[in-house]
Specification:
Blueprint: E1 8-12, H1 17-28, E2 32-37, H2 40-49, E3 54-58, H3 64-77, E4 83-86, H4 108-136, E5 139-144, H5 157-177, E6 182-188, H6 196-204, H7 219-231, E7 236-238, H8 244-259, H9 277-285
Parallel strand pairs: 1-2, 1-4, 2-3, 4-5, 5-6, 6-7
This protein binds nicotinamide-adenine-dinucleotide (NAD).
Nicotinamide-adenine-dinucleotide (NAD) binds near residues 17, 89 and 144.
Length: about 290
């Protein structure tokens, strides 16, 4: 059983919403928590809101020199990180109608920002702390994706691209870290009552756009689900079971397309199939 007491947790996007709720839950279980966020004012408030051992560090997850500073700060203050939560994220720029928010109308700057924060930001966290966790052979990484990391719809193409990427990275990372005793989970929330739209708008200078009260799940409930997911080393942490239908629909479309595709003449059923974990494991065993 994974114990939280005495561990050091580093949470990006920790100044609000899901990250802050998780910070409170971890501190409540006796972990020492570093909340990292781009929003310095919100961090100061967050530090006051968490009871327990907590510190904050301002970090733009796109900036690798800031990551280095954040790691040194955390290790000097508390010690080595064994719970890493790559959670910072933004949603597509608010203000525009859904019909005008698609990929075709998205500016290159907006695309770069989305991928830089939501996808490369997660990679940067893994690159900063991952090898140290592997070498110590202990810990857990949670990467926040979304239900939009497993299904898509119009108007959120870049968000989906970033979140599908987070799911893919998390699946690969889980294979890589499992032999070293480090767990990896990917969090795929449905709609959660947070300031995601307002906070995303702030980053691009758009007006606040609050979510209607009672529209989404309480982030404290999400935090409970994440704690349980870490304890049980779950690969996927979903928050809304109603997405089983749309996910099934997508998977069935893929399966049907594959069922209509002939098996290639080069396929050898006695050999591991290239691209599968079985293939990777065989290559690793052979030292290749
Ligand atoms: N709220 C939802 O309905 C929902 C649903 C699915 C997934 N998510 C994901 O959950 C995660 C947390 O979002 P939330 O809903 O708690 O919203 P939130 O806005 O309350 O939290 C996100 C935090 O990330 C921070 N952030 C943004 N850009 C950053 C950067 N470049 N560097 C560091 N910090 C940065 C923001 O300042 C904010 O504090 C995000 O990755 C989001 O995509 C949220």
């Amino acid at each position: 059983m994974f114990e939280f007491a005495g561990r050091i947790a580093f949470i990006t996007g920790g100044a609000s919403g899901i990250g802050l709720a998780l910070g409170k839950a971890l501190a409540g279980e006796g972990a020492r928590v570093v909340l990292a966020d781009i929003n310095g004012d919100a961090l100061a408030e967050a530090e006051r809101a968490v009871s327990g051992k907590v510190a904050t560090v301002q970090l733009d997850v796109r900036d690798r020199s800031q990551w280095l500073h954040a790691r040194k700060f955390t290790e000097a203050r508390f010690g080595p990180v064994s719970i890493l939560v790559n959670n910072a994220g933004i949603i597509n720029d608010g203000g525009a109608q859904v019909a005008q928010r698609g990929l075709i109308d998205q500016s290159p700057d907006s695309w770069d920002r989305m991928i830089g924060i939501n996808l490369t930001g997660v990679y940067n966290g893994i690159a900063t702390f991952g090898a140290r966790m592997r070498d110590r052979g202990d810990g857990h990484i949670v990467n926040t994706a979304s239900t939009q990391g497993v299904i898509t719809c119009a108007g959120v193409g870049s968000y989906c691209a970033s979140k599908f990427g987070v799911v893919a990275m998390s699946e690969a990372l889980r294979y890589e870290l499992e032999p070293h005793g480090v767990g990896v989970s990917v969090l795929c929330p449905g709609v959660i009552q947070t300031g995601l739209v307002t906070n995303s708008n702030r980053i691009v200078g758009l007006p606040a756009q609050d979510m209607p009260e009672g529209y989404g799940m309480d982030p404290a409930r999400v935090a409970e689900m994440v704690m349980e997911g870490i304890r049980a080393n779950r690969q996927y942490i979903f928050t809304h079971g109603e997405y089983a239908g749309p996910v099934d629909q997508r998977h069935r479309a893929i399966e049907q397309a594959l069922a209509q595709t002939p098996v290639s003449p080069l396929y050898d059923p006695d050999q591991p199939l290239a691209g599968t974990q079985e293939f990777a494991a065989a290559m690793i065993a052979a030292g290749r």
